[in-house]
């Protein structure tokens, strides 16, 4: 723990939609040593490789992989959203609710309307916490480029040595080179601050969200078959999670 900062008591748990998100809170991983659940396997390029990279980051920072670790492919997330299949998402919420029993606090992706998997991650975590029936401190961190942060509940300013370790972890992460280069072009000082904000519910995300507008453009270009839409696809999962969390 760092002097001068107060953290909630009890074990910290991090839940991310994609492998690689953990790099955004690398210093926090080092300080709080959470167990880390990763919903998807980062497929698209090299499936197993990306989870392996995340394991290396977690081990290097003193954090631990959780029981949910690359459970579903991104392709399956999209297929399930488009076809209205919710059982896989409910099963993830069920498992996380179980895992949260001994947790002291939870951190997960922010719902930014940027990527459906990030928003689903937030929805699943919030449903699992409500099902748990015990209030736990619940924080988010932003991922989308230029996304507005909520008020800082906990923020870390990285010293040069911590920033150097974070940069080394990011540069060593195969499959994220383009993202790392983009950040370096913006200036690595953008990586110096890690902000955790009180979680905002996914239902407050913009409507239509960015992923919907972007998806429609891709369909028009002939690059996508069907876009993920906030209504009905994402709202259908939100409704199913709400029914499940009340059925305890
Ligand atoms: Zn992502």
pLDDT < 50 runs, ≥5 residues = none
User: What's the average pLDDT?
Assistant: 90
Bound small molecules, by name, code or SMILES, are: zinc ion
The profile of the biggest β sheet is: 7 strands, mixed
Q: Give me the number of helical elements.
A: 9
Instruction: Please trace the helix and strand order, writing H or E for each element.
Output: EHEHEHHEHEEHHEHH
In terms of DSSP E residues, the strand content is 15-25%
State the helicity in percent bands: 40-55%
Q: Order of strands in the sheet with the most strands?
A: 3-2-1-4-5-7-6
Instruction: Report the strand count.
Output: 7
Based on Cα principal axes, name the global outline. Answer: globular
Quick tags:
9 helices; globular; 45% helix; 7-stranded mixed sheet; single chain; 248 residues; binds zinc ion; 7 strands; 16% strand; alpha/beta
Give a description of the structure:
- The chain has 248 residues and is an alpha/beta fold.
- The protein is 45% helix and 16% strand.
- It is built from nine helices and seven strands.
- It has helices at residues 26-32, 47-61, 74-83, 87-99, 116-132, 160-171, 177-186, 210-220, 230-246, and strands at 12-16, 35-40, 64-72, 105-109, 138-141, 154-157, 193-198.
- It has a seven-stranded mixed β-sheet, with helices on both faces.
- The longest helix is centred in the middle third of the chain and has 17 residues, at 116-132.
- It starts with 11 loop residues before the first strand and ends with a helix.
- 40% of the residues are buried.
- The mean pLDDT is 90.
- The chain binds zinc ion.
- Zinc ion is lined by residues 17-18, 21, 115, 118, 143.
